[in-house]
Amino acid sequence: MRTKKILLIIPLFFIVGLMSCAFQSKLADSSMREVRYINGLIHNVNRNVVELSDGSRWVLNRFLVTSNMSEVIVVLFENKLQGFMYVNGNKYFLKPQNVEVDFDTDFLSRKSLGYLTIIKSIDMNIGTITLLGGTEWRISGYYKDIVKNWQAGTDIIISDDYTWAMNLPTYTKAEVKLLASGR
Length: 183
Hints:
It is built from two helices and twelve strands; from the N terminus they run αβββββββββαβββ.
């Protein structure tokens, strides 16, 4: 009898697991790319080498002229130490300098998970943004003044729980809710 219960429970867990995976994939549209990101501060800049306050050093694709303590957003592609950084509203592609990482337990595990995409359009009259893949998101009323400076065509990250959107060039964040999927 006990063996029968266990044999019935195992497929049930499998089915629930599949359903939860299917639910997540319905929310993310085809334009979204999984990324890890972190907000940080510049500790030191030497031409195109940037050291952040967490001690990480990055080589940028071009020289950077800014002051120490400037706010940055580092965006890294899935389990890689490659991506880009926004500094003062400008995008710089980057790679690590002298960084050895255990991907499972070290550097990337300290970063936030989200989905990178692009704003297709914004309708401030009804308070919605449409992303490149066609998903439509309602902006919480409290954040409408913040979002009025967002522009179509800019990079945006949707949080992994699909409740926040962060505009990368402006460093601003707004609470959002999925209205319609583009799939």
